[in-house]
């Protein structure tokens, strides 16, 4: 229920999410610049499916989410494609209680966990405006690199809506509760330099350098100790929701698990032998 475009047409748009693996980096590109890179349901589901498909595999050890063009990263949900109708008994209302909730759980609230729970590091390369769930798609990534002309817009209040796509969960964790309320209530544009100052992105680069900057970080991660990153991400993403005792248990299990990896053995051996480690990713 985010935003931003309307006008009915068949939802045959899944191929507007492009996917390729290069140098063990999965590149996921939203390729719908004529629609401001808004996500149709098919695009949203393919994006989430691609991220989930990286789990338990060895072909890619890092991922980048970006978009085509230099104007828009993702402007939210493309409302131009109506939801698929479901069979209804005679006399049933057009929208029954619970249907919108189910749409959310199966839609944006399935996409964002696919980013947060992806077992490889995910970088958002924000090439232009991110609005609505486009903001939250970027912020759920592990690292965010923005072009200097890009901006974030928590646009929901402009439409009389509430933040969805886990916005109310991710924003306070990044900027604090009061600042999150300011961003949501006023729905003002946040330019890239301000986003970096607030902690909403890690790095701002000239637009022409965005792909190179994302590539450098992604390939560096892809050549690193993959299971270390996976378990570190798991610990960090859970840390703000757990009491200290539970996190102690999680940390102990993470150390137990990582100690059985080949990369952990290589890390110790390379240290003792005074050489650079060769990470294999398992």
Keywords:
10 strands; 11 helices; six-stranded mixed sheet; 2 domains; disordered N terminus; 41% helix; alpha/beta; four-stranded mixed sheet; 282 residues; 2-enoyl-CoA Hydratase, Chain A, domain 1
Kindly describe this structure.
The protein is of the alpha/beta class and 282 residues long. It folds into 2 domains: 209 residues, 2-enoyl-CoA Hydratase, Chain A, domain 1 (Alpha-Beta Complex), CATH 3.90.226.10; 47 residues. It is built from 11 helices and 10 strands. The chain has a 6-stranded mixed β-sheet with strand order 1-2-3-5-7-10, sandwiched between helices. A 4-stranded mixed β-sheet has the order 4-6-8-9. Strand 1 and strand 2 form a beta hairpin. The radius of gyration is 20 Å and the shape is globular. The two termini are 40 Å apart. The N terminus is likely disordered.
CATH class group of the largest domain: Alpha Beta
Low-confidence stretches: 1-9
Give the helix/strand class.
alpha/beta
From the 3D structure, determine the CATH topology of the largest domain: 2-enoyl-CoA Hydratase, Chain A, domain 1
Architecture of the largest domain, CATH level 2?
Answer: Alpha-Beta Complex
Percent helix: 40-55%
First-residue to last-residue Cα separation: 40 Å
Identify the strand order in the major beta sheet.
Answer: 1-2-3-5-7-10
The total number of structural domains is 2
Number of helices: 11
- The gyration radius over C-alpha positions equals 20 Å
CATH superfamily of the largest domain: 2-enoyl-CoA Hydratase, Chain A, domain 1
Strand portion:
15-25%
Query: What pattern of helices and strands is seen along the backbone?
Result: EEHEEHHEEHEEHHEHEHHHH
- Biggest beta sheet attributes: 6 strands, mixed
Shape by Cα distribution: globular
Q: What is the overall pLDDT average? A: 92
Please report the total strand number as a whole number.
Answer: 10
């Amino acid at each position: 229920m985010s935003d931003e475009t309307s006008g009915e047409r068949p939802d045959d748009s899944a191929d507007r999410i492009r996917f390729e693996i290069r140098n063990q980096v999965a590149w996921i590109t939203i390729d719908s610049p004529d629609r401001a890179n808004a996500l149709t349901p098919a695009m949203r589901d393919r994006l989430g499916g691609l991220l989930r498909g990286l789990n338990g595999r060895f072909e890619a050890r890092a991922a980048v989410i970006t978009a085509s063009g230099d104007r828009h990263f993702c402007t939210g949900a493309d409302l131009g494609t109506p939801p698929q109708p479901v069979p209804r008994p005679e006399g049933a209302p057009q929208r029954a209680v619970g249907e919108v909730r189910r749409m959310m759980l199966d839609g944006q609230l399935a996409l964002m966990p696919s980013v947060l729970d992806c077992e490889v590091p995910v970088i958002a390369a924000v090439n232009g405006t991110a609005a609505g769930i486009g903001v939250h798609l970027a912020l759920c990534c592990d690292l965010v690199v923005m072009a200097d002309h890009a901006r974030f817009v928590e646009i929901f209040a402009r439409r009389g809506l509430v933040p969805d796509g886990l916005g109310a969960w991710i924003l306070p964790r990044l900027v604090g509760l009061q600042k999150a309320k300011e961003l949501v209530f006023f729905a003002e544009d946040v330019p890239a330099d301000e986003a970096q100052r607030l902690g909403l992105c890690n790095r701002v680069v000239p637009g022409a350098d965005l792909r190179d900057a994302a590539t450098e970080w992604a390939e560096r991660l892809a050549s690193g100790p993959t299971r270390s990153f996976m378990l570190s991400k798991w610990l960090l993403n859970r840390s703000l929701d757990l009491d200290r005792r539970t996190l102690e248990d999680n940390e102990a299990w993470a150390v137990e698990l990582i100690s059985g990896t080949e990369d952990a053995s290589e890390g110790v051996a390379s240290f003792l032998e005074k050489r650079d480690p060769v990470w294999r990713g398992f």
